[in-house]
Amino acid sequence: MDTTPDGAAPPEAPATAAEPSSNPPPQAPADPKNVQSTEADTAPKLSPAELKKRKQAEKQAKRAQAKSSVPQTPAQQKGPLAKEGQKQQKDSKNAKADLSKPFPVRRRPSQGNTPVVKEVKVELKKDKQDRGLFFGHLYNQPRQHSMVGASKDVNPAILALGLQYSNYIICGSTARMVAMLLAFKTVIEQYHTPVGTSLARHLTAHHLNPQIDYLRSCRPLSISMGNAIRWLKDLIIKIDPDVPEDEAKRDLQENIDYFIRDRVTLADDIITSATAQKINSGDVIMTYASSSVVEKTLIRAHQKGIDFSVIVIDSKPLFEGKQLARKLANHGIRVKYLLITGAAHAIKEASKVFLGAHAMMSNGRLYSRIGTALVAMLASSNGLPVIVLCESVKFTERVALDSIVGNEAAPAEEILSEAERRALLPLKPYLHTSLLPKDDTKDTPAKGNGEVLEWVDNSDNFQMLQLLYDVTPANYINMVITEYGSLPPSSVPVVHRLSTHV
Amino acid sequence: MHPKRKNTLYKCVWRPVIANPLPAFDVVATYRSILASDPELTMPVAAIESLVEAIAHSNVSTVAETLRLLDDMTTILKNSIPNPISLSAGTDLFQRYLITTLNRPASLHMGPSDDFRAIRNHLLSNGRLFVERAKASREKIASFGKHFIRDGATILTNGGSRVVGALLRRAAESSTMRFRVIYVLSSSASSDAREGQQIVADLRAHNVPVATIPDSAVAYSLGKVDMVIVGAEGVVENGGIISRLGTYQLGLLAKSKGKPFYVVSESHKFVRLFPLSQFDLPIEQKVLDFKTSDGEKKGDAREKQGPEDEGVADMNGKVAGSKCSGNRPEDAVDFTPPNLISGIITESGVLTPSAVSEELIKIWF
């Protein structure tokens, strides 16, 4: 989505434009203001069909531009006109051609346009991002929920994976990274170097990047995924051009397997065995949400015959703790499940706190599921040791000072559960009429429970902010257990250096 | 090591009986006699020295054999004394050193054709070099640490740490500094107290005014104190220290009064251990002993794992020889967390507590 804000330039970015993906992190967008405005109207809330149309329109525009057959009037770049133009694109190809050009650039006050329903919606979104409550920059990444509009280069395995990401079926930074690497194995297997190029150059830049971009459009990449991608690209680039393609591909696939084995499977094994030793009988372990390595640790300790119990604290947005509590209980561990509202009460019984991580920052801070910081601070103020379990592949050289600059905002429609939507439905009669969806709305999924979201979307003074992560300051963390041993959080950069350069 | 390894593996095949290498060699006795013979020696160094002796007395001829011998000896040593924390710092370090050198024979300037015995001899001489260096480190620490003492300062210290003693002595010898010392001395006749009295007498002979106070007077005297210097039995991974019982409360009090709290310790006392709390130490201490009048014990889970040890044996070579009961609180140790420590003065420089883990990682990876 690199369309320049310059109205005269042809908008040529397809839905999955190739961005430089050498630093894929979900956080820290370069220039929120700029990117945000352009992407705001291109991306969100477009049905697949519309996306397709848009792309066609852009192509047309390019062609038209080449011929320079249609002169541009300043009026056409004005907002309302452009909007109407876009509405007409269904009938007139020519109109589409030039009118789509200014489309990504403009910003309009939302009130003036009420008659044109669909466009109003788009604008409202954009304005909301302007208000944004400091979080506008987190919305610059359009979320993709379907395979439509994906580049044709994207491998079916990646398409499927992307859907699993965006639906939170594959969730958790380790699981996402492993799934991605396995899908990349398929991609590499099916890859053939075109004539006249070398595998080392073509595979990364032209074949892998579209896959990565598609995955990123489904959900921002996790730190571990970024690390794995960097590792893989580094590996590919270093392939000797003389190596036959088959051999190179086999090597790559083998290396991916080794990577998963060394950095995840074995690392988890070391971490769980080290952590299980920290559990004494009689302990009450508190954990927050769900982490695969915490789960393995607790099960392992239980199988060792240590008598302990677990308190699982859980919260919106994903309620991952439910899964963890169920699995632990199925293993015969005594489990208490509480929402975060009860954490202050439950902490009095706990003796240790185990936390999973999305990433460990170089300033020793923990970047993890939103709510983690709360639990860590609570534990710290109660004098409990806070132990983070984290594979070194999740370490990053970046630092985080707060939870605002780098974070992931989940769109409301992904997060609101069916039950919650149903609960909100009876409120409909009390809604202000301007918030009610108009009848000519064409979005089919908006019917039924999805309707609720439209109220949210339509309201101009209400925004649903759903962040997925928060940052826990280092002084609330006593210990980080990695496959390199136990460390204080201040040693994260040392281990990161070690794990990337050895 | 690849060419070599093949070689050694081969040797293993036709000499597999060395599972129990020379039982005649008593590593514990050697360890104790080494400690007793040189009062300047610390536990980790004595442990390393006795391990070197063990290897010298054995006829190991392969890498695997050497490592197994080392393992056996280390286990015997650790089991023989009540508080192996300090000792394990030395044995771990030596083991690590052995593994890295054995895996890289090239670093010893030897070809693959060289006999393993040559490697072994090299190891032995290097091991002795290590011991020499470790002994010299105390003087180096003293020369670093004396700059922390300003003219007119009052220093609070405790225990019978010989490094602290060396540091204060060195400072006293310099003619430009006048300073006073408040020495926390327990009244008991423990080895630690004896060592402490020795240092006090020594300092007084050097014209340094010394006041001795009991543990209970620490908070009282803290107002007169400019800085606290303590020794350590082990420096753990998070930068905290394991030291004589009472050091933790000294640290807490110093922190609450905003007095800088420095630890002096040789870097061979860095130990790969990460205690989360006082009761997370890998030793048995019987400090907490809940009793009622009818003698029946009532305690919580903590009391059971309450540790026992010969805490400060490190500070005094003779203690290791006189096997102590381990029940006495004056021989116990406690854990001072890193947030109470301003700096750790080692022979390789002055570290912040968080740098300890970095140093340890450097050694281990």
What does this structure look like?
The complex is a heterodimer of chains A (502) and B (365). Among the domains of chain A are: 156-267, Four Helix Bundle (Hemerythrin (Met), subunit A); 280-408 and 472-500, Translation initiation factor eif-2b, domain 2 (Rossmann fold). Chain A is of the alpha/beta class and 502 residues long. The two termini of chain A are 36 Å apart. Chain A contains 19 helices and ten strands. In chain A, helix 2 packs across helix 5, helix 7 packs parallel to helix 9 (199-218) and helix 11 (245-276) packs across helix 12 (292-303). Chain A has helices at residues 32-42, 48-67, 74-77, 79-88, 93-99, 117-131, 156-166, 173-189, 199-218, 223-237, 245-276, 292-303, 321-330, 343-346, 372-381, 412-415, 418-424, 451-458, 492-501, and strands spanning 284-288, 309-314, 334-339, 352-355, 359-360, 366-369, 386-389, 469-472, 479-482, 485-487. In chain B, the strands form two sheets. Chain B has a seven-stranded mixed sheet. A three-stranded antiparallel sheet of chain B has the order 5-6-8. Chain B folds into two domains: 27-138, Up-down Bundle (Four Helix Bundle (Hemerythrin (Met), subunit A)); 141-275 and 331-364, 3-Layer(aba) Sandwich (Rossmann fold), CATH 3.40.50. In chain B, helix 2 (27-37) packs across helix 3 (43-57), helix 3 crosses helix 5 (85-103) and helix 6 packs across helix 7 (162-173). With 365 residues, chain B is an alpha/beta fold. Chain A binds chain B through residues 278, 280-282, 352, 385, 387, 475, 478-479, 484-488, 490-491, 494-495, 498, 502, and chain B through 237-239, 272, 274, 276-277, 280, 301, 305, 338-339, 353-354, 357-358, 361, 364-365.
* Uncertain residue segments of chain B: 1-22, 299-327
For the record, the CATH class of one domain in chain A is Alpha Beta
**Sheet/helix structural class of chain B:** alpha/beta
Number of helices of chain B: 13
CATH architecture of one domain in chain A: 3-Layer(aba) Sandwich
Main sheet of chain A? 7 strands, mixed
| Radius of gyration of chain A, whole Å | 25 Å
Task: Specify the biggest β-sheet of chain B.
Answer: 7 strands, mixed
Mean pLDDT of chain A: 76
Portion in helices of chain A: 40-55%
Helix-strand topology string of chain B? HHHHHHEHEHEHEEEHEHHEEEH
Bulk shape of chain A: globular
**Would you list the SSEs of chain A in sequence order as H and E?**
HHHHHHHHHHHEHEHEHEEEHEHHHEEEH
Q: From the alpha-carbon coordinates, what is the Rg of chain B to the nearest angstrom?
A: 22 Å
**Quick one: which chains have the greatest interface?**
A-B, 21 and 19 residues
User: Which regions of chain A are unreliable across 5 or more consecutive residues at pLDDT < 50?
Assistant: 1-44, 68-129, 439-447
Could you please say which CATH topology of the largest domain in chain B applies here? Answer: Rossmann fold
Give the C-level CATH assignment of the largest domain in chain B: Alpha Beta
Record the strand order, biggest sheet of chain B: 3-2-1-4-7-9-10
Strand content of chain A: 5-15%
CATH homologous group name of the largest domain in chain B: Translation initiation factor eif-2b, domain 2
Main location (chain B): cytoplasm
Subcellular location (chain B): Cytoplasm, Cytosol
InterPro entries (chain B): eIF2B_alpha/beta/delta, elF-2B_alpha_N, IF-2B-related, IF_2B-like_C, NagB/RpiA_transferase-like
Family (chain B): Belongs to the eIF-2B alpha/beta/delta subunits family.
